[in-house]
Amino acid sequence: MTAPDPEAPEAPTAARSRAKDRSPWNWLLFVPIVVPLIPAFFNGDSPRLFGFPRFYWLQLAWILLGVATTTVVYQMTKKKRGGER
């Protein structure tokens, strides 16, 4: 068995740096998971939006909430890289 080359670039370095990302912004990702699990939001027929009961249009609202939350967390946690866009 040969010893690893100390000058060889390490591929898992990027994966390790992402795994060590302990930003508090990541806690915001629990919002789109927990909010749809609250039954009080679905317990009723009104208000209706364009004739759709609350349950149906809230399903679409949860998708928008998840996209918005993920976008905010991504923008706030991405690393600034010098020389790259």
Walk me through the structure.
This protein has 85 residues and is mainly alpha-helical. Helices cover 41% and strands 0% of the residues. It contains 3 helices and no strands. The chain has helices at residues 13-19, 31-34, 54-77. The longest helix is centred in the C-terminal third of the chain and has 24 residues, at 54-77. The radius of gyration is 21 Å and the shape is elongated. The protein starts with 12 loop residues before the first helix and ends in an 8-residue tail after the last helix. The mean pLDDT is 80.
Question: Could you give the topology of this structure?
Answer:
Blueprint: H1 13-19, H2 31-34, H3 54-77
Provide keyphrases for this structure.
mainly alpha, 41% helix, 3 helices, 85 residues
Largest sheet: none
SSE topology string: HHH
State which percent range the strand residues make up. under 5%
- The total count of strands amounts to 0
Shape: elongated
In the predicted model, the low-confidence regions spanning at least 5 consecutive residues are none
Number of helices: 3
Helicity, as a percent range: 40-55%
Care to give the gist of this entry?
The chain is mostly helical. It has helices spanning 13-19, 31-34, 54-77.
